[in-house]
Amino acid sequence: MAPVKHMMNMDHGHMMDMMGSSTSHSKCVVVFKEGTTEAEIKQHADEIEAQGGYVTEMYDYLLKGFSAFVPESYLMHLQSLTGSGGVVDYIERDTTVSI
Q: Average pLDDT for residues 74-99, to the nearest whole number?
């Protein structure tokens, strides 16, 4: 699975400038349930970008999903896809952990 838009080398401030300050975004990791197709995952990644967010990394080895700067309005939609019958396994804020 190829990245939709690979923005890993861009700092957070530059990404926020590109997205504009009028929309609130959250950096999240979205993990999809087993059986979710690559096409379904790409559809959600494309929708994030259509709404002004950015996918920073696609995952398809240990996890099926992506990390992205997700507009808050679309994040609520993704959260509605968790639980029984949904395609999203879980969503976590993408943060740095230090020991």
A: 92
